[in-house]
């Protein structure tokens, strides 16, 4: 008497669970490929033209642990004078694992007074952020920071 | 409608280094997101931001999808003379907005 309704309910739940599991698979596969360290290297190469990049001078202020990758405050400061004959020409920021390696390029000049820019960025994963400064004498200086992201940005579904 | 928020000091002494803060409301759609039906949402971002002072370019930024929605950018400049800052944002789908702010240098 009790057996038939029970078993059909189990069957239904089993089928529904299976369907849900199947439905979840395409969601995982549509995620686009990540930028690779090779893409990061080629993006840096595009800016530097293969010139040697020194470590130092550049300071990248970004929280080491980020809860929400959709908006991460970031400040880049270059410890360098801003004189007409010797100044920071541009600052370039890159990432390792977003779909694209570029974050932003900032173009400055001696009138800037201070080589410092701030913005808010998106991070799709825990990764390394690289900032490179180009000086007026043609040399490049860089720094990198590792950031841990708990909620990823960029590729989530539109609701 | 797009709208801009600009923060420039109204007054400064000659030679002071001043901070300029800008925010433009914009969705900054990355082009990497999909709807629940699997269609890609086309990219719609601001690609370029420029600041000019009395007609001369003093700051420019190239933006990418990795910039968060409602791009907030701050930078510095040296106050040399009284004048007008002009800001321009250019992006996908013909997006183009401008704003301006005046400063008195003593």
UniProtKB/TrEMBL annotation, chain A:
Domain (Ig-like SoxY): residue spans on this chain: 45-154
Query: What's a Gene Ontology MF term here?
Result: oxidoreductase activity
User: Which Pfam family, an example, fits this chain?
Assistant: SoxY
The record ties this protein, via PROSITE patterns, to: TAT
Under the heading InterPro entries, the entry gives:
Desulfoferrodoxin_Fe-bd_dom_sf, SoxY, SoxY_para_1, SoxY_sf, Sulphur_oxidation_SoxY, TAT_signal, TAT_signal_bac_arc
The protein's matches in NCBIfam families, at most eight in alphabetical order, are given as: SoxY_para_1 (TIGR04487), TAT_signal_seq (TIGR01409)
* Protein name as catalogued: Sulfur oxidation protein SoxY
This chain's source organism reads: Bradyrhizobium valentinum
Automatic annotation (TrEMBL), chain B:
Which SUPFAM superfamilies does its entry note? E set domains
User: What sections of the sequence does the record tag as coiled-coil?
Assistant: none
Start and end residues of each Sulphur oxidation protein SoxZ domain: 9-101
Pfam families hit by this protein: SoxZ
> This protein is called what?
Thiosulfate oxidation carrier complex protein SoxZ
């Amino acid at each position: 008497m009790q057996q038939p309704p029970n078993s059909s309910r189990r069957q239904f739940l089993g089928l529904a669970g299976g369907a849900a599991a199947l439905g979840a698979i395409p969601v995982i596969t549509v995620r686009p490929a990540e930028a690779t360290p090779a893409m990061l290297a080629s993006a840096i190469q595009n800016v530097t033209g293969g010139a040697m990049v020194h470590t130092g001078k550049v300071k990248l202020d970004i929280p080491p642990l980020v809860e929400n990758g959709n908006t991460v405050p970031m400040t880049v400061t270059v410890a360098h004078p801003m004189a007409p004959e010797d100044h920071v020409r541009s600052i370039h920021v890159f990432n390792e694992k977003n779909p694209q390696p570029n974050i932003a390029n900032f173009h400055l000049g001696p009138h800037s007074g201070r080589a410092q820019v701030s913005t808010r960025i998106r991070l799709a994963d825990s990764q390394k952020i690289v900032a490179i400064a180009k000086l007026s004498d043609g040399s490049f200086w860089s720094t990198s920071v590792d950031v841990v992201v708990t909620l990823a940005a960029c590729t989530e579904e539109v609701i | 409608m797009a709208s801009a928020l600009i923060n420039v000091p109204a007054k400064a002494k000659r030679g002071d280094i001043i901070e300029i803060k800008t925010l433009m409301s914009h969705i900054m759609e990355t082009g990497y997101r999909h709807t629940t039906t699997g269609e890609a949402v086309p990219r719609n971002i601001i690609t370029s931001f420029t600041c000019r002072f009395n007609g001369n370019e003093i700051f420019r930024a190239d933006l990418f999808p990795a910039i968060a929605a409602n791009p907030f950018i701050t930078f510095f400049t040296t106050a040399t003379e009284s004048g007008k800052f002009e800001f321009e944002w250019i992006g996908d789908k013909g997006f183009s907005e401008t704003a301006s702010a005046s400063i008195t240098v003593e």
